[in-house]
Specification:
By secondary structure, the chain is mostly helical. It folds into two domains: 20-128, Cyclin A, domain 1 (Orthogonal Bundle), CATH 1.10.472; 138-181, no CATH class. The chain has helices at residues 20-30, 53-65, 70-83, 91-100, 105-114, 118-130, 153-165; strands spanning 138-139, 147-148, 172-173, 180-181. Strands 1-2 form a two-stranded antiparallel ribbon. A two-stranded antiparallel ribbon has the order 3-4. Helix 2 (53-65) runs antiparallel to helix 3 (70-83) and helix 4 (91-100) packs antiparallel against helix 5 (105-114). The longest helix has 14 residues, at 70-83. The radius of gyration is 18 Å and the shape is globular. 21% of the residues are buried. Mean pLDDT is 78; it is low at 182-189.
């Protein structure tokens, strides 16, 4: 699996708060499967992280500097934001998460303060948008349009199996939107 950056909140804004929209998405993700993580559902008006750039820069630093630790650090970032609703654009939160994974917090701070990985984060974001990706998670399967969004495991498995079996007709596309239809019925992704 290849991990790349996708900037959801590029601008640094102090006025961001959780809304009913955020709450609904967290609730839907938490009840999707029996083994779904427990998502904290913040109150409307609670502070939302100012930006996603610093967290992406920290993850990129971990991916490049300590590739063996990157998966655990990436998961720690996910859990910090979705499970504990921590502000993952805060330098001290990121340094603490890094230290908990055995990463050098001073080296992480230095990389973030200098903006060493920001160009790479922004380049990967532009590469994704140029491929038609406009959200996350996004999964690219050869011969199919990108699968974007929280897709139920069974539907994703079916799409991968279709790719491996070389189904002659390829993926089914919604004629109106061009989106890949993964699940029979009304759900389209």
């Amino acid at each position: 699996m290849l991990n790349r950056n996708f900037t959801l909140v590029p601008e640094d804004r102090d006025d961001r708060t959780f809304s009913d929209y955020h709450r609904a998405h967290r609730h839907a993700a938490g009840v999707q499967d029996t083994d779904s993580p427990v998502f904290q559902i913040p109150a409307v008006g609670d502070r939302y992280p100012r930006s996603s750039l610093l967290a992406l820069e920290a993850a990129t630093w971990a991916r490049e500097a300590q590739p063996a630790v990157f998966p655990a650090f990436d998961l720690a970032l996910f859990e910090a934001f979705f499970v504990r609703t921590e502000d993952i654009c805060d330098l001290e939160v990121l340094a603490r998460l890094g230290a908990s994974m055995g990463l050098d917090p001073a080296a992480l701070r230095a990389a973030l303060v200098t903006g060493q990985y920001r160009p790479m984060v922004l380049r990967e974001y532009l590469e994704a948008t140029n491929q038609g990706i406009h959200g996350i998670p996004a999964i690219l399967i050869p011969g199919q349009a990108p699968i974007v969004g929280a897709v139920p495991y069974a539907d994703l498995k079916r799409a991968v199996e279709r790719a491996f079996t070389g189904a002659p007709d390829g993926p089914r596309l919604d004629p109106a939107s061009g989106a890949v239809i993964i699940q029979e019925g009304s759900a389209q992704f």
